[in-house]
Amino acid sequence: GNLSFDSFQRLNRPHTIMQKRMPKHVAIIMDGNGRWAKKKGKIRTFGHKAGVESVRAAVRYARENGIESLTLFAFS
Q1: Over the stretch 38-61, which tens digit does the pLDDT of each residue have?
Q2: Whose CA is closest to 54, among 14, 1, 6, 2?
């Protein structure tokens, strides 16, 4: 299934991640932000804004954990 922003934040907690071996490259396919917003009774742009926050969180996590390459595919 899809990883929601809330799920990503829970995974981003330091005690949840084993930091022994981190990948050098991570790729994330982001899709469904508009549908996610619609399910919550919001407009599509609300979902796109949440997607931007997810990107920021992913970039921050990669930087803080030594992931050298981060590839993001975003579909609207």
Answers
A1: 999 999 999 999 999 999 999 999
A2: 6
